[in-house]
Amino acid sequence: MSFDYQIAVIGGGSGGLTVAAGAASFGAKVALIERKSELGGDCLHYGCMPSKALIQGAKEVYQANEISALSNQEYDQLFESTMKRVQTAVQDVQNHDSKERFINLGIDIYEAEAAFEDEHTLKVGDQTITAKRIIISTGSSPLVPPIEGMDSIDYITNESIFSLKKRPQSLAVIGGGIIGLELSQAMARLGVEVTVLEGAERILSKEDEEIASTASHLISSSVHLMTNAVVDKVEPGENGAAIHYTKDGQSSQIAAEQVLVATGRTPNTGGLNLEAAGIDTDKKGFIAVDKSLRTNKRHVYAVGDCNGSMPFTHVAGMEGKIAVSNAVFGLSRKVSYTKVPWVVYTDPEIYHLGMTEQDAKSVYGDSLMTFKTKLEHNDRFMAEQNKEGLVKVLTTSSGKIVGAHAIGDGAGEWMQEVGTVQALNKKFQSISNIVHPYPAKNNVVTQTADLYWREKLFNSPINKALSWYVQNLR
Asked: Beta strands of 223-368 (E only): which ranges?
């Protein structure tokens, strides 16, 4: 059977663009299908790029206010300028992911919705195309929970918050996960009164408990955090919305000019007509894949948010690289998430790699070794007076890294050294042999690695023998 394309990619986000560019570079005839007018996906337009531009702008406003208190009028002006800055940042990256770049690679771009007619045939707008192999990379969208009254208010999500033109006086955020907290802190620093309502016992439920507790303490200086607060219903209010919630068995309500919904993600798979191709999904609509990122149809792959793995841009890119090698060359490379870090870009930043201490204890028991250094014991953080935070690395008795966590200024940068060592299958104690410029922030990682030797050597029978040798024979 002949096909129009060797590879058809559905979705022009990080994973899809990685697959399309890679496949075309290897000589495959590629179709790239994207329903929106621009490439780049959620990360570029509603996620990583605009949020980081917002966070940086908000940090600068916060620092200015520390020097001289800002007036309401000044906050209004700085809010507007920050939002313009966000759009400029998005456009700068958009130029890099321009359609022309991919057209020049020989890729045919279809600007339309795609839906399966059978396992090799796609309805793309008014056209029909066939492909020998298909990679789905349609991403995800904000999950709006079935809260009574949500349809009666003009709530915002991460897809619409960056379009705000005027500074709201108050903001209620439903959800205390990564997206909710990053945006909450940024908005608070731009002069907005922010309240976060989280239904669980703590914010950042996927983070190490000690790290999350430290984050809660630091973020609460500018954001009102309420945990165990379940939103029951919302309704229009005099100047926005009224949010009714139950906390610790007591019913209450707050008013806010704007409501931000940040309660998770839902896969963009509903319009693909996966049933026509016989492709399996789970109950939430995520596409089921094996470790080679194949669906139950071996010529169809799914990468990025739509497969329910880890909802991060760098993960979609990683999966895209694996999928393109498997699809183009017929390999069976397998994906592993044990060495994939992520960062929460609050201030201070939070770095996460591997297991939390609680999870690692359940797996390794008494053989787990935990090494911690508080930033207040590091010269650089003392010099800059950014002393609140810590580093925590979890290893086996031999030094194999099974988890690494930190909260501190720039943690997403200086903690990656631990991730690099783990990715290279080296032991944690090897970092002790690396000489860092003084007083670079990653010296705090070396301090933590030194603790391994203190634990393994200084308190061991070998050290006792060495002490006897020095005292008696030297």
From this structure: 224-226, 229-237, 240-247, 250-256, 258-261, 265-267, 300-302, 341-344, 349-354
Concatenating the DSSP letter of every residue in 106-156 gives: TPEEE-S-EEEEETTEEEETTEEEEEEEEEE---EEE-----BTGGGS--B
- Closest by CA position to 414, among listed 453, 370, 452, 384: 384
State pLDDT tens for residues 58-104: 999 999 999 999 999 999 999 999 999 999 888 877 766 678 999 99
Let me know if 184 is exposed, middle or buried by CB neighbors in 10 A (0-12, 13-18, 19+): buried
Residue holding tokens 């709530």? Answer: 155
397: Cβ contacts below 8 Å, ≥ 6 apart: 367, 369
Task: Specify the pairing of strand 258-261 against strand 170-174.
Answer: parallel
pLDDT tens for residues 94-150? 766 678 999 999 999 999 999 999 999 999 999 999 999 999 999 999 999 999 999
The tokens for 243 are 């949010």
pLDDT per residue over 256-303, tens digit each? 999 999 999 999 999 999 999 999 999 999 999 999 999 999 999 999
- Pick from 36-40, 281-285, 351-355, 357-361: least confident: 36-40
The total of other beta-carbon atoms located within 10 Å of residue 154's CB is: 10
Q: Which two tokens stand for residue 309?
A: 């793995």
Distance CA 341, CA 42 (A): 20
Residue 470, number of CB atoms within 10 A of its CB: 9
pTM score:
0.94
- CA-to-CA separations, 268 to 31, 142, 278, 313, 363, in angstroms, rounded: 19, 10, 17, 15, 34
Which tokens go with 469? 């040798």
Tokens of 242: 């009224």
Q: Is the pLDDT of residue 43 over 90?
A: no
Classify 7 as helix, strand or coil: strand
Calpha distance 304→315 (Å, rounded): 7
Start-end of H helices in 334-460: 357-364, 379-384, 411-414, 416-423, 443-453
* CA–CA gap between residue 247 and residue 463 (Å, rounded): 54
Task: Outline where DSSP puts E strands in 18-60.
Answer: 30-33
Q: Rounded to whole angstroms, how far apart are CA atoms 80 and 74? A: 10
Residues with Cβ within 8 Å of residue 222, at least 6 apart in sequence: 62, 185, 188, 189, 194
